[in-house]
Every structure is written in C-alpha cells, then in structure tokens.
Write a structure and sequence with these properties.
Helix content of chain B: over 70%
Largest sheet of chain B: none
Distance between the termini of chain B: 17 Å
Oligomer: heterodimer
Strand content of chain B: under 5%
Low-confidence stretches of chain B: none
Number of helices of chain B: 5
Number of helices of chain A: 3
Order of helices and strands of chain B: HHHHH
Number of domains of chain B: 1
Largest sheet of chain A: 8 strands, mixed
C-alpha cells in the first residue's frame, strides 16, 4: 500500500504540471513590442512610425483643441454619470473639415489617470497620428499633450475615440464625430451606450430634428458601441448613400428593410421628406424623428429582412484590380480554452493561435492584398482595419454584384467567410482587430506591417501603454 | 482526505444548483425588461452593462460555469487520488468529465440552440453524479470495503 500515495502524487503532477506550464507560458512580459521577435528593439530598423506624418510645414486649415478630463458628465438627456469628457462634454465636439484640408487636433490630457490617445476611425491618416498607444505613440498622460495632423482624402462620416484602455475609455465617453465634406442639411446620429442609457447625440429615447417636406436629408449614423446595431426607417423609403465614409454607387430606394450597422461602422441614409414625420430607429427605441411640429410618428417593430450590401447599388470601377493581388492573407477567427496572460478561459484565436502569438501581415508599399476573413468562433466580430479601406469581394463564396462596398469595419458573423481586398498605400504599422473592444482586449488583434517600418513604442504594464 | 473529497463533491452539486437559479433569475429579469418596453440588441449585450439588475445572473452563470466549476472539478479529481475510497477516482473522473461536457454544451448553445436543451439535461446528470459521489463516501466506508 506504500505505492498508493506515490501513484496519487504522480497522477496529480501529471495533471497539474502541464496546466502550470501553459499558465506560466501565457504570462506577458511587462513591456513588449508588436513587432515580431527579431525585429523589435529600440534602435529599430528602417523608418520609424514617428516619421510618417503629414507635411510638417503646412499650416492647419482646421484647428481644434480637445481637453480630456475624468469627471461627472452630463448627457443632453440630463442624466449625469462618472466618465470622461472632451472639452467638458460627451460625445466630444463634432469636428467638421473639407476634403484636402489639414486638420490639426491638439489633445490635452487634463486628468485622465491612465492616459489617453485619439484614433481617427475610418480616416486613412499618416501612421504617426493613428493614435494607438504602444504602437504609434505613447499614451498621453495627465498634464501632457499630443498634436494630431492629417489631411482627409475623401468626404464621409467618421469618428474619433481613445485607443488607450479603449474598452473602458470609449464606453465611458472619450469619443466624438468627424464629418468630412459639406454637411449643412445633414443630421448626425451618433449612437452610444452610457452605462444602461442608450443615446443618440447624447439624447435618450427620441431626438426631434426639423426637416421640411420635400427636403433631402442625409442621416449620418455612427455605431460607437461594441456590437452590431439594427437600424430601420418608419414613414418613408430611403437610400443607403454611404457606408464607412465611402459613397455607394447608384443605391436604389428601399423600404421595410432593416440595416445592420456593426460596431465602429457608419451608414449614411438619404431620405426625401414626405409630408408626415419620419422615424429612424437605431437599435430599437432610440430614434431620430425628422419632421416639424408635431413629431408624431409611433415606433414600429424591426422589419424582418435585412438589406444585403453585397447586391445593393450598381458596380463601378474600384481603382485597382483585386485579381492582380500579390499578397494573400488568412484571418481565421476561432476560440479555444487556454490561458490569456495567466487567466484561464475560452479565448479568441487568430489562425488557430492565441494572443500574443497572432499573425503579423507583412506588406510592401503598392502591394495589392487579398484577405480571407473567416469566423468560426461562435460569436460575431466587427473587424476593423486601421489606415486603409478594403472592398468586399465575396461572402461565403458569393461574389459581390452591387456597388463597390468599401469598409473599415466589417461585420463577420459566426460561420461567415468574407473575401476582401485593399491596396497597401499607407505605410506604417496598423492594427487589424475586432471592434468589440473587450474582444480586442481579450487578444482578437493582429497587425498589418509595412516592410522597412519599425516602431520605438512598446506596450505592457511597465510601459503605461494598453491600447485595448 | 476522504472528507475533503466528499465536501468538494457536495460543493459541485451546490454550484449546479446556483447555476440553475442564476440563469433562470437572469432570464426572468430579461423577460420583464422587455415586457416593460426595454430593447436588447447585440450592441446592448456586448456593452456588458447592467441594463437590468438580473443581468448579474448571467455574470454569475458565466463565471461560475466557465471558471469556478472546472477548477473545483479538477480539485475533486486530484482529491480522488488521495481519498482512499473505493471507486473514488472513477466517480471523481466521471464528475469532471460531466463538468467539461456541461461547459462544451453551454458554449455550443450560443451557436446551436438545441444543445442548450442537452445542457439542461446534463445539469441534472451532473447534479446527481456529484451528489452521489458525496453520498457514497459514507456508504462505501460503512460497508467497510
């Protein structure tokens, strides 16, 4: 019987030792670079991301200062809560610019303890101002500031948000809208959840906007939350005129269909005002009501069918030939049990591997890139590529037949496979991650890296940089 | 160690009870929230906000089922090696396997809802197996095997 305790001990070790080993192997260093092993190091190689800027000598056409604070914020609806503000408000001020103007934003962190950054979601900015803490800059600590300079190259609806501890800072208020191009008669609909309160432009429930019969109204919808949001229009047909800041070609009039605006994505709707009010419902009860006194139109249930952008509108030239792609990447999202920085759980994988062992997609300037994004993880993922817009070629083997469908935030449902393509025309190191920000924090992140570009920045507990 | 083994088995049975109560509490809260005019879409779900207080039931169910139960199940298996109860390892392993099956069925139900029905069935099997594992310690000991 002396053998028995020995066997018990061996069995215990046999079970626990591998677990302990996996746990230990998963721990992240207190400071690490996104660059692959062998490329990292403060001396770097090639050009640093800090050199990838807009023309430094050019004066600004649009100049804005944004002061970030941790304080109680007061929504347009009157509700107050603790969170973060930009210039004393949340959402932050709407920034307007025209195509080709140099936008200069001075970010001052007055009192956000973890530090802040600003990422220009959907704008193909120079890499140095992409705003990713630990990749393109250090987080701006309290008492410090950082200047962002970029020239938007196309008109559209965009937004900005912190990319430092983003899963917490964006939810708690560090965000705002950026509108490029003429927008005089437009209606902004920035949807955000502040705690349990779902808001549009800070209003809970409905916001009434005056629109006379016969006028053409463009409603710019921005989903700043972490999951896809259905949108539908009551009282009028409409067109979807732009997606993610890119105009659609020849969009047809539709009615009684729902739209899906995924996390981080934008959709612009055009409505020619009828004699009676029109209600644009976003995620349910939250609405913009267009009309004039009285704004009397009841809400309605979501139409069962959803508009498929794969076949909406008419084809048009892309400006490049995806068939001539010279780089093919696979971004396969899965899920498996394991340890993430020591925490056991069921975690996301990219191409079968778990963070930080995720792919670095390496390209050269001018490459034509095709990427197959597939998702078999049991959950939907709104995938966001920084610094580029990609065109959707096919979904689940069915080719796109409608307008060129450019995206920076693509809703990849469970079981879906998308084929996308883009031109590598913006050197730098760019995140390509899930815009369900807690998912990104759980490691659903990869990077697109240009040859010859390096970053001096690192992330990890010791660095103060935590982009997700 | 016999006692430790027995207590862990009872703890697992109790945790299964907590699981059932927590998830039904949460679903009831969700149902009331919707009845009162609340709207839930994926954006709301993914905000991980407490939009109705019973959301805590989902959090308890998730943490308890995804983290606590597998850890306690593992502890039962390890304790079974030292328990000096005939059949301890067999029953400890059976409970642990049922815990893993329960997790798999639970996660799978998000994609394939019918596996949620099996998740409910397996909960009863797990509860019974864990309870029996605890009960039989005394029985086997008193028989003197």
């Amino acid at each position: 019987m002396r053998l028995r305790p020995l066997v018990a001990c061996i069995a215990t070790v046999a079970i626990l030792a591998p677990l302990a080993w996996f746990w230990r192997a998963s721990l992240l260093p207190s400071s690490y670079s996104v660059m692959p092993v062998g490329h990292a190091g403060h001396e770097g190689h090639g050009r640093s991301v800090t050199m990838l800027t807009a023309d430094l000598a050019r004066p600004a056409d649009v100049s804005v200062t944004l002061v970030a604070r941790k304080e109680r914020l007061r929504l347009a609806s009157g509700r107050t809560m603790s969170g973060y503000t930009l210039n004393g408000q949340s959402p932050g001020p709407v920034i307007h610019a025209d195509v080709g103007q140099l936008v200069q934003v001075r970010l001052v962190n007055e009192s956000v303890p973890d530090g802040v950054t600003l990422h220009w979601h959907g704008v193909d900015v120079p890499n140095a101002v992409d705003g990713v803490a630990g990749v393109t800059q250090d987080a701006v600590l309290a008492g410090h500031e950082f200047v962002y300079r970029f020239v938007p190259d196309r008109a559209g609806t965009f937004w900005y948000h912190s990319h430092q501890v983003s899963h917490e800072q964006v939810a708690s208020g560090l965000l705002g809208a950026l509108i490029v191009g003429p927008s005089d008669n437009d209606v902004l609909a920035l949807v955000h959840l502040y705690g349990p309160a779902r808001t549009v432009n800070g209003f809970e429930g409905s916001q009434n906007v005056t629109a006379r019969p016969g006028t053409r109204v463009r409603v710019r919808i921005i989903n700043t939350d972490n999951g896809p949001m259905p949108v539908w229009v009551v009282g009028s047909p409409f067109r979807v005129v732009a997606v993610d800041g890119s105009d659609l070609h020849a969009p047809s009039m539709v009615r009684d269909v729902s739209l899906l605006v995924t996390a981080g994505a934008r959709m612009d709707l055009e409505i020619v005002m009828p004699a009676s009010p029109v209600r644009v419902q976003m995620g349910g009860a939250t609405s913009i009501v267009l009309g004039s006194e009285p704004y009397d139109i009841p809400s309605a249930a979501k139409p069962p069918s959803t508009l498929d952008l794969l076949s909406y509108g008419m084809p048009a030239p892309l400006g490049f030939d995806p068939a001539k792609a010279n780089k093919h990447f696979t971004y396969d999202i899965g899920r498996r049990p394991g340890f993430l920085d020591g925490t056991p759980g069921l975690w996301w994988t990219v191409n079968g591997r778990m963070f930080p062992d995720v792919p670095m997609f390496t390209v050269a300037l001018g490459d034509i890139v095709r990427m197959t994004v597939s998702n078999n993880s049991g959950d939907v993922h709104p995938m966001h590529l920084h610094g580029h817009r990609a065109v959707v070629l096919a979904r689940d083997g069915v080719a796109a037949t409608g307008s060129p469908w450019w995206v920076d935030s693509l809703n990849v449902g469970d079981g879906e496979t998308y084929e996308i393509a883009f031109v590598a025309n913006n050197p730098g190191i760019w995140m390509d991650h899930c815009h369900n920000l807690p998912h990104a924090g759980e490691g659903l992140v990869a990077h697109l890296m240009y040859e010859g570009i390096s970053t001096p920045y690192t992330m990890g507990t010791q660095t103060g940089n935590n982009p997700e | 160690m016999k006692k430790v083994y027995q207590v862990i088995a009872y703890v697992i049975a109790a945790l299964v009870v907590v699981q059932a109560m927590a998830v039904v509490w949460a679903i009831s809260g969700e149902s009331k929230y919707v009845s009162d005019g609340g709207v839930i879409d994926k954006a709301v779900v993914e905000s991980r906000e407490v939009i109705f207080p019973e959301v805590w039931g989902f959090a308890v169910h998730g943490i308890n089922g995804g983290l606590v139960l597998p850890l306690v199940g593992l502890l039962l298996l390890v304790a079974s090696f030292f328990a000096k109860v005939p059949g301890a390892v067999k029953w400890g392993a059976a409970v642990f396997v049922l815990v893993l099956a329960q997790m798999s069925l639970g996660y799978a139900s998000h994609e394939i809802p019918i596996t949620g029905a099996l998740h409910g069935l397996n909960a009863l099997l797990l509860f019974t197996a864990a309870g029996y594992t605890g009960l039989r310690v005394k029985r086997v000991a008193s028989v003197g095997v």
